[in-house]
Amino acid sequence: MAFIWGIISNKLARLILDIITLLYIQGFLLPTLLDKYGFKFFFYANEHEPKHIHIMKGEGFAEVKLETLKVVQNYLKPKELKMALEITKENQEDFIRIWNEWFN
Question: Which of 20, 43, 57, 70 is the most buried (most CB within 10 A)?
Fold first, then answer.
C-alpha cells in the first residue's frame, strides 16, 4: 500500500508542478509586460521594491531597476543587453504604470 501511495504522491506532485508552471507561463504568477524581438519583460507576482523588471532571452537574463534603468544583474550578451535597455527605456512609463497597478 505504501508503494502505491508513493506512486500516487509522485504523480500528484508532478501534476501540481505542471499546473504552477502553466500558471507562470500564462502570466498569472509571472506577469509579462512585453514580448519583443525574443525578449520577455516581466516581474514576479510577489515582487519587492525598488521597482524592477526581469528580462529573459534564450538562456540569458537580466534585472533592471525601472526608475533609473540601472542593471542589477546581467547574463545577457552585450548587444542583447543594449537592445533590452533600449526597449525598457521606450516602455519605461508603461512598465511603471503596470507595476503600480499590480502592486497597489
Answer: 43
Spatial CB neighbours of 102, under 8 Å, sequence gap ≥ 6: 31, 43, 45
Q: Which of 55, 95, 49 is nearest to 75 (CA)?
A: 55
Q: What would the pLDDT profile of 38-92 be if each residue is shown by its tens digit?
A: 999 999 888 889 999 999 998 899 999 999 999 999 999 999 999 999 999 999 9
Is this prediction's pTM over 0.70? Answer: yes
Q: Is 27 left (phi over 0), alpha (psi -120 to 50) or beta?
A: left
Residues 6+ positions from 34 with CB-CB distance below 8 Å: 40, 41, 87, 91, 95
What cell numbers appear for 31 in the block?
Answer: 506577469
- Signed CA dihedral, 72, 73, 79, 84: sign only: negative
